[in-house]
């Protein structure tokens, strides 16, 4: 049905490649390209399908991307490199007539700040070119938006309160490690918290608000309020929402390490002089931390991510909780990667599948909740991320 180019051969890229290869009726030709070609070759070897092509590309360089796109001629690019590369890849897509999908919104390298404005600014150009760009199609952002759209379509007349809850109850047996790219992860968590209430954004100190929440099959976990990018598009696309928040669990050991990292200056993203050269402390830290791709083998436990929603149906108050639990070990057995890479890579593959099947094809730049959630929800059940729902239970939030 279609040719796909995956950019990025990290934890998420590896899962995307496995899942794309498992669906040969949809993805008829596959290429994986990244900064380091040997990593792409290793992914292909692990999958054991020699028909998957590989290439080296610097995704910060539009000309290099355009040359690659023009030679392979993909219909869609799945961008699972880093958020820094979103705009160059979108630019190259426009120049070569290729459709686009990513899992994280653009961030400039020198400021730890993310918002959709930079990518939404491309809307008219994608529309005029007749190309589709699908933004934020991992788990959160991604499935969190699709769950919300599904709830709005089938369970509510009006969504009023939305709490996205993300629990990782896994244990990788390392003193400290991040589950995805450490630089992006630490930048995200050390920022101020932010949530939406009555038409305004409320800012909190980093990790200032937290509460115990109960996760299915896991139990109580201390959950911290963070700002997360999908809140920005969800409150815009569902204007009846009065309050929207995002919660993520952290263990005390993780938070203690994080505090020390910050206190000693290792979370800095500005350049410092070291032995006659300039280094960015957070990038140096990434080089010495465990590689998230190597955590899978000894990772036990599971993740549980979902949406807890309160609103009105037929004039009555209703609550709805929709979630997925994903086992790190099962993810590892299938793809060689842990659950966080798995829960991101599977939805990215499904998003590209939705596009190639013509179900999510509309020129412009869109967040996932702007498409029909039904065929995506159906695929989640088939592709390894089954979901469950609890209607009119206690949401705790
Ligand atoms: P990794 O760091 O493991 O992988 C990133 C990959 O991108 C690496 O292969 C890296 O190459 C490659 N890369 C980096 N810079 C360039 C460049 N300039 N040109 C070409 N390739 C480049 O990250 P993850 O796999 O953990 O995460 C991938 C993406 O998924 C991130 O954007 C992350 O924010 C997002 N994510 C989204 C989630 C969601 O639920 N929506 C959850 C988790 C992650 P090299 O190997 O040479 O360094």
From TrEMBL:
Lineage: superkingdom: Bacteria
PANTHER family, A to Z: CARBOXYNORSPERMIDINE SYNTHASE
Name assigned to this protein: Saccharopine dehydrogenase family protein
Domain Saccharopine dehydrogenase-like C-terminal, chain residue ranges per copy: 138-385
A Pfam family matched in the record: Sacchrp_dh_NADP
The Saccharopine dehydrogenase NADP binding domain, residue ranges: 4-134
InterPro entries with a match to the protein in the record: NAD(P)-bd_dom_sf, Sacchrp_dh-like_C, Sacchrp_dh_NADP-bd
Species this protein is from: Bacteroides muris (ex Afrizal et al. 2022)
Signal peptide limits: none
């Amino acid at each position: 049905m279609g040719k796909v180019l995956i950019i990025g051969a990290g934890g998420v890229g590896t899962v995307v490649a496995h899942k794309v290869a498992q669906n040969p009726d949809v993805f008829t030709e596959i290429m994986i390209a990244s900064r380091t070609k040997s990593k792409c070759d290793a992914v292909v070897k692990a999958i054991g399908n020699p028909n998957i092509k590989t290439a080296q590309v610097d995704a910060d360089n539009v000309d290099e991307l355009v040359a690659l796109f023009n030679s392979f001629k993909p219909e869609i690019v799945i961008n699972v490199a880093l958020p820094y590369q979103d705009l160059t890849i979108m630019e190259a897509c426009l120049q070569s007539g290729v459709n686009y999908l990513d899992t994280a919104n653009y961030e400039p390298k020198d400021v730890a700040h993310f918002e959709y404005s930079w990518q939404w600014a491309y809307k008219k150009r994608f529309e005029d070119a007749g190309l589709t760009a699908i933004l934020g199609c991992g788990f959160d952002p991604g499935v969190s938006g699709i769950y919300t759209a599904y709830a709005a379509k089938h369970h509510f007349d009006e969504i009023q309160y939305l709490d996205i809850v993300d629990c990782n109850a896994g244990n990788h047996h390392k003193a400290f490690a991040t589950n995805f790219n450490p630089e992006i992860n630490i930048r995200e968590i050390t920022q101020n918290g932010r949530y939406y209430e009555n038409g305004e954004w409320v800012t909190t100190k980093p990790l200032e608000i937290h509460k115990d929440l109960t996760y299915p099959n896991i139990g109580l976990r201390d959950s911290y309020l963070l700002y997360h990018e999908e809140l920005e598009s969800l409150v815009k696309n569902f204007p009846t929402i009065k309050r929207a928040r995002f919660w993520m669990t952290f263990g005390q050991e993780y938070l203690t390490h994080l505090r020390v990292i910050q206190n000693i200056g290792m979370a800095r993203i500005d350049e410092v002089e070291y032995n006659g050269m300039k280094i960015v402390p957070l990038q140096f830290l990434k080089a010495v931390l465990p590689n998230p791709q190597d955590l899978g083998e000894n990772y036990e436990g599971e993740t549980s991510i979902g949406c807890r929603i309160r609103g009105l149906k037929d004039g009555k108050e209703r609550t709805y909780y929709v979630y997925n639990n994903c086992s790190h070990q099962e993810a590892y057995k299938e793809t060689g990667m842990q659950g966080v890479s798995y829960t991101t890579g599977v939805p990215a593959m499904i998003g590209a599948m939705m596009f190639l099947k013509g179900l999510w094809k509309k020129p412009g730049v869109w967040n996932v909740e702007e498409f029909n959630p039904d065929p995506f929800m159906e695929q989640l059940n088939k592709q390894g991320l089954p979901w469950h729902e609890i209607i009119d239970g206690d949401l705790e939030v």
